[in-house]
C-alpha cells in the first residue's frame, strides 16, 4: 500500500523538494522508502520492499504555508495513520487459467480464472487492490473500447463482487458471460472468477493487497494506474524523488 497524495492544483517542479521535506513518514518498524512524483499533482511514498504485516504507519503532511511554486500555499496540514494487515498476495497465471491466493506465505485458495483476450489482453506486473464494490456498472464506452451498440465489443453490464486493481478499469470479478472460467481468455482485460470465488475474493480483499499478473502479452501497468508502483525498479523510482531514499523513523514514545 503506497501513501498517495493528490494535490488540488499543479505543483511546480521547483517546489517539489520543499514539499517533500514537509512530508514525514514514521513506522513501528523502520523501512527504506522514497517519494516519487508521478505528475505535477500526484506524489507517492513506497517502501522499497512490501511493508511487513502489523507495521503501524503514520504520515504527517505539514503543508500549512508551503508554496506550490505557482503562487499558492497550503492551507492546512494532515495526519494519516494505518496499520498493515495480513500479507495477502494474489497471482494470476494467465496461460494456466489459474489464480492463486496466499496469506502469510501459505496458499489459501486456488481458483480457475480467465483473463483478457488476445485483442484486449490484461495488464501485467504487480498492481494492488485500489477498492472494491459489491456491484459495478461496466460499459465499453466509458473505457474507450466501443460506444457502438452494434459492435461485438460493446457491453453495458452491472456485475457483482468487483475488486479494482487499476484506474483504467481492471477488476477481478464474476461475469455471466464466463460463468465457468478456466478455459479461455476472452475478457476485455479483467480477470473473471466463478461466482463463488469472486464473492470469496471480494470478502477477503483489502486496499493495498498486491495482485500480480503474468503470462499476458501486454506490458506492465503504469505505476500511477492505480497503485502499481512496484512495477518500477527501485532505481527508476528514486529518479522521481527530490530527496532520494530515506529510512523511516519510529514514532516517539
Short note summarizing the structure:
By secondary structure, the chain is mostly beta strands. The chain is built from three helices and 16 strands. It folds into two domains: 3-84 and 230-247, Sandwich (Immunoglobulin-like); 88-221, Beta Barrel (L,D-transpeptidase catalytic domain-like).
Features:
mainly beta, 16 strands, Immunoglobulin-like, L,D-transpeptidase catalytic domain-like, 253 residues, 3 helices
Beta-strand content estimate:
25-35%
Radius of gyration: 20 Å
**Which strands sit side by side, in order, in the main sheet?**
9-8-7-15-10
- Helix/strand order, N-terminal first: EHEEEEEEEEEEEEEHEHE
How would you describe the shape? globular
What ranges have pLDDT less than 50 throughout 5 or more consecutive residues?
A: none
Q: Determine the N-to-C terminus distance.
A: 25 Å
Give the biggest beta sheet: 5 strands, mixed
Would you count the extended β strands for me?
16
User: How large is the count of helical segments?
Assistant: 3
Oligomer: single chain
CATH architecture of the largest domain: Beta Barrel
Binned, the helix content reads under 10%
Structural category: mainly beta
| CATH fold-level label of the largest domain | L,D-transpeptidase catalytic domain-like
CATH class (first level) name of the largest domain: Mainly Beta
| Count of the separate structural domains | 2
The H-level CATH homologous superfamily of the largest domain, spelled out, is L,D-transpeptidase catalytic domain-like
Average pLDDT: 95
